[in-house]
Amino acid sequence: MSQIAAESHVPSTASAAFSAGRPDPSVRAAVWSMLTTLHAAPPYGQQRREERFPYPRLVHIMPLDSDGRPLAQGERTGVGKHISTRGLGFYHLGPLHERLAIVTVECTQQPWKRFLMQLRWCRFVGHNWYESGGRFLRLLPEDLDPRQGLPAEVSCPTRRGDAPNA
User: Fold this and answer.
1) Looking at the DSSP assignment, which residues form a beta bridge with residue 121?
2) Which residues pair with 97 in a beta bridge?
3) Are 149 and 64 in contact (CB under 8 A)?
4) Which of the four CATH numbers 2.40.10.220, 3.30.420.40, 3.40.50.1820, 3.30.300.20 does domain 3-42+50-142 have?
5) Each residue of 58-97: pLDDT tens digit?
6) Where are the domains of the chain?
């Protein structure tokens, strides 16, 4: 059995996975699905909990306010750096101050995937370019329009007043 096939096993319940700090099963399955079209086998020798893979693909970022509404003039496009089942690192122009975003990532031979993402860091790398990253909170419907923000049925961690686990 290939390493990717062996790693595609996902936890049985989303709530148990989220509370244990593991990625949501639908997020994990979506990322592994995307990775199988890019890489034959995962790289070795990393010292992280989850293996990271290069992800030089387009990334669309729609920053959200604490209620899950899109910010005016906030949408931007970036380029992926690394992806794992836990999150994504990417490059973009200008700083990102928001901590929540809808991130849409380009996929090969599949519809683009949309994730609700907690942005955890942003650092200047030079010439108005920044590198940011964070963790996936959940997979969003493919037909969701990021410019409309999160629909009411999609829970936003900060809507309830409880920020995601750090």
Assistant:
1) 133
2) none
3) yes
4) 2.40.10.220
5) 999 999 998 889 998 889 999 999 999 999 999 999 999 9
6) 3-42+50-142
Least Cα distance to 96 among 115, 70, 124, 69 occurs for: 124
The pLDDT of residue 39 is 54
Both structure tokens of 1: 């059995």
**What local confidence, expressed as pLDDT, does residue 29 receive?**
87
